[in-house]
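Build the 3D complex.
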Amino acid sequence: MTMLEKLFPPLLILTSFIGAWELYVRLANISKTVLPPPSDIALAVLSYREILFVHAAQTLKEALIGLFFAVLLGVGFAAALFLMPRVRAGVYPLLVLSQTIPLIALAPLLLMWFGFDLFPKALIVILYCFFPVTIATFDALRAADENMVDLLKAMGASSWQILSYVRLPAALPSFFSGLRIAVTYAITAAIVGEFVGAYRGLGVFMLTSANSRAIVLVFAALVVTMLLTVALLALVSLAERVFVPWKKI
Amino acid sequence: MNFSNSAALLAVRGVGKTYETGKKEIRALSNVSLEAKEGEFVSIIGQNASGKSTLLKILAGVGMPTSGVFELRGDASYMPQDHALLPWRTVEGNLLLPADIAGASRGRAQEKARALLSAFGLEQYARLYPAALSGGTKQKAALLRTVLHDHSLLLLDEPFAPLDALTRIEAQTWLLALLEKTEASVLLVTHDIREAIFLSDTIYVLGSGRIKEKFDVPIPRPRRHEQLRAPEALELEKRLFSLLAPV
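Done.
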């Protein structure tokens, strides 16, 4: 199936949805301050592109820094859980339990403790993204084909060689699945942090626009948020094609 | 583990293996003794869960016996069930895996791998990942990896089980041709009676973790599949079947 054939069905649905939205707003005379038509949103994105760019750059910076440390900590934590069964027995249930904490409620606390700068936003992104990366990587390390592990043992491989020749490469596809989930959280998590308190960022832009009743600008920021997330997802897919070439077949 | 009186390449004496699962004790192997001479092709035939793979893993150094000993003069190369080609390595990369694990230089191993791939009709697959190969080609690539590094004993765990009947026959003939290029002995585990007869010099029947009987295969080499229709082969097949068939 070519890329065009793959993209056609979702694009068709999206275009139909946008068309129906445009028609509904115009034909039903819906106030633009309640629900602007997609054409107005597109125009707003173009007209405010410079301001949106500044805010988007800030949000992207927070998301990428948070994501970077979430991946670093997540993979390290997954490897530690895998290699140390005693630590795993104590920590793994707590890790799962930690996901019952509504992270959004932690945002005001983090802002109070660490101020309005980049750090607390990156921390929120880390908290959101750490779990999917850790769990996906840990489960994959455990799920490596035991036949392959036996083969390496028979060849006299050390534990480190088994980890680097079998378990880590076997975990890569699952790691990328976890990363894909984490990426979809990252921009949203950064915006959540900005909602609570920030000087710049798409969250700040959305709040300011909403307070001024410029609903079309809220939608414009949403479009940029979506575009950023799609761009990050595309980057992850590209990285996966580079680092997991055997999956292309 | 010293059997100085034994002329065998491999001598297994009274090997047993017991697993504990919770409060239950499972006896996978019980007092298993067998031998393989230099250059000999030995098969262990048995039904599922008869302990065949457990024995092979012990001999490969993957598991430890709970009783008994074995002696191997030389070293062994192991092919687990289901080829175990690493999906992230090309066929050539998989063949070089033992050299990489041993920390040996790749140069000589690479030269040998390419020669072997070429001699056995797999050179066009050298740079492909295993996912791109057919079932038969995957098994052949795994067999080449097992024989490449001049081990004295090849431990093969049902190498042809995943293949359809016709591909299996072709792969068996291919294996015999491959073995002509080596001096290695083979210990093959299988549940296929005809495969055991076609390939082996000696067959051990394993049931419920015990050796039930040993047979010498009375078919001359070089082997052809038509020889399986000879009266002595059919008679052996009948005897093996009667030992293996559920009562």
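DSSP finds eight helices and nine strands in chain B.
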